[in-house]
From TrEMBL, chain A:
Family the UniProt entry places it in: Belongs to the YciI family.
Species of the source: Catellatospora bangladeshensis
Transmembrane segments: none
The name this protein goes by in its record: YCII-related domain-containing protein
InterPro entries: Dimeric_a/b-barrel, YCII
Boundaries of every YCII-related domain copy: 19-106
Pfam families: YCII
From TrEMBL, chain B:
Lineage: Bacteria, Bacillati, Actinomycetota, Actinomycetes, Micromonosporales
Species of the source: Catellatospora bangladeshensis
Gene Ontology BP annotations: DNA-templated transcription initiation
Domain DUF6596: 176-276
Gene Ontology molecular function, alphabetical: DNA binding; sigma factor activity
Stated family: Belongs to the sigma-70 factor family. ECF subfamily.
PANTHER family documented for this protein: BLL6612 PROTEIN, BLL6612 PROTEIN-RELATED
SUPFAM superfamilies: Sigma2 domain of RNA polymerase sigma factors, Sigma3 and sigma4 domains of RNA polymerase sigma factors, TPR-like
Keyword terms: Sigma factor, Transcription, Transcription regulation
This protein's name: RNA polymerase subunit sigma-24
Keyword match Transcription: yes
Domain of life: Bacteria
Length: 110, 414
């Protein structure tokens, strides 16, 4: 089994409407029932982010995202799947449920 | 001894995919499978002229490559025990209803939709076709290092993202087969009408390779109508190859081709495939329809003898499957033969294909036939500007310059 990060991409920080939230709940329950679930969360708006750099001693705090972009990550899942074909199906289900594009990326094994 | 040399070339073509595919499954690593297969062939080139070709060359190559790989893996594992885990590629457990052949796994892996299209093409030619990186780089006019990197990156993604080494899920199969066929057709088309100026306009080695790979996929998926359709389409197109470019390197259109120069053997094989599909009585997909259109063309003695109502009917069928402007453009070309250039031009002028050179070439031809020389000239100019293929450009320039002659007796307006 391998783990994959499914990042939800979006171009605004408005919250998902209730019908999308309901679809996400259904999807999450299915993930758990099928044994793919590891973790999932929604993220607060990019404006609330702080970049912290402590590589040179005292930490330096920068307000905002590390990369300016039109799209950003508004939430994510971590799922478990035996291989990419299964993970692609999960990502497709996630994209449908939350009505957003999803970036699927393998998490490095130990 | 060139005899053995030819024999090795033949064996390389016939056995490469099987050797790589078997090794990839047994070793769980595509990269090592490819490298060791190449090494085994190098050993064969050295030994067979001296020792003779073994009775089962494919088996000999697989075993030799496998032993080489095991030796190497042992050395690496000793060096770093934990690498052993990383070397396990996966195996989807069930064959999922289609025949389970390692080469089929290899084809589906190389044509996986999670890889970029250029990567799929390169990987398929390398892993399944056995072309070398320099050969593929030359075929696509890409720097050798860049092509090598494209293939390396694709292999790294297969490993890191765990692209399965197996046939797809049953419910994904039609879409995945379509994906494989798209890769094969892309290889064929690059050979058939090279997109780059400064290249030979037709490259037989690429069309031949595409046909060989499609034959292989057909052996592996014999019941699939679209695989048969694509093979038929390629054969019927390839059959006209010798007649398609003149001795001066200019594209010769269907109507002007010397039909005596067409390859009758390929046409017979293509027709047989099309007839078998018609007899199957299933609704045809796009490749089967395109093959049927080409079967009508290759059945006719000349352009006038062509059953254009049949061609238009087939295009109608294709438009229902794929109403894209390019399909409608091709349909309009057939309509011009059936209902005249005026009707065809009305249809063509509705298509949003400003950046597509065949659109302008078609308009130019229709306008020329309608005697609207000035407009035809402008359309030829635009087509020439956009066309990349040298033979096609040469043809368009001649056509345009023939208009110039026409202009000398055609009074200019005003």
């Amino acid at each position: 089994m391998a783990q994959y990060l499914m990042s939800v991409l979006h171009d605004s920080d408005s919250l998902a409407p209730p019908e999308e939230m309901a679809a996400i709940d259904v999807f999450n329950e299915q993930l758990q029932a099928d044994g793919h679930w590891v973790f999932a969360a929604g993220l607060a708006s990019p404006g609330s982010a702080t970049v912290v750099d402590a590589r040179d001693g005292d930490p330096v705090f920068t307000d905002g995202l590390y990369l300016e972009s039109k799209e950003h990550i508004v939430g994510f899942w971590i799922v478990e799947a035996p291989h990419l074909d299964v993970a692609l199906k999960l990502a497709a289900g996630g994209s449908k449920a939350c009505n957003r594009r999803v970036e699927l990326r393998p998490i490095l094994g130990e | 001894m060139t005899g053995v040399g030819d024999e090795i070339t033949r064996i390389h073509r016939a056995e490469w995919a099987r050797v790589v595919a078997t090794l990839a499954r047994r070793l769980g690593d595509l990269d090592i499978a490819e490298e060791m297969a190449a090494e085994a062939f190098a050993i064969a080139v050295e030994r067979w002229p001296v020792d003779g070709v073994p009775p089962n060359p494919g088996g000999w190559l697989t075993t030799t490559a496998y032993h080489k790989a095991v030796d190497r893996l042992r050395r690496e594992i000793r060096r770093e025990e934990k690498h052993r885990e990383a070397l396990m590629l996966f195996d989807t457990p069930e064959p999922l209803g289609v025949i389970d052949d390692d080469r089929l796994r290899l084809v589906f892996t190389c044509c996986h939709p999670a890889l970029a299209v250029e990567a799929r093409v390169a990987l398929t030619l390398r892993m399944v076709g056995g072309l070398t990186v320099p050969e593929i780089a030359r075929a696509f006019l890409v720097e050798e290092a860049a092509m090598g990197q494209r293939i390396t990156r694709a292999k790294a993604k297969i490993k890191a993202a765990r692209i399965p080494y197996g046939v797809p899920f049953r419910e994904d199969l039609p879409a995945r087969v379509t994906g494989v066929l798209a890769v094969l057709y892309l290889i064929f088309n690059e050979g058939y009408l090279a997109s780059n100026p400064g290249r030979e306009p037709i490259r037989g080695e690429l069309t031949a390779e595409a046909i060989r790979l499609t034959r292989l996929v057909r052996d592996l998926l014999p019941a699939d109508g679209e695989v048969a359709g694509l093979l038929a389409l390629m054969l019927l197109t390839e059959a006209r190859r010798a007649a398609r470019v003149s001795s001066s390197g200019e594209l010769v259109t269907l109507g002007e081709q010397d039909r005596g120069a067409w390859n009758r053997e390929l046409i017979a094989e293509g027709h047989a495939l099309v007839r078998a599909r018609l007899a199957a009585g299933q609704a045809p997909g796009r490749y089967q329809i395109l093959a049927a259109i080409n079967a009508v063309h290759t059945d006719a003695r000349d352009l006038r003898d062509t059953d254009w109502s049949q061609v238009v009917a087939l295009y109608d069928q294709l438009v229902r499957l794929d109403p894209s402007p390019i399909v409608r453009l091709n349909r309009a070309i057939a309509v011009a033969e059936l209902d005249g250039p005026q009707v065809a031009l009305a249809e063509v002028d509705t298509l949003p294909l400003e950046g597509y050179h065949p659109f302008h070439a078609t308009r130019a031809d229709l306008l020329r036939r309608l005697g609207r020389s000035a407009q035809a000239r402008a359309a030829y100019d635009r087509a020439i500007e956009l066309a990349g293929n040298t033979a096609e450009t040469a043809y368009l320039i001649r056509r345009r310059d023939q208009l110039a002659g026409a202009c000398s007796w055609w009074p200019p307006p005003g």
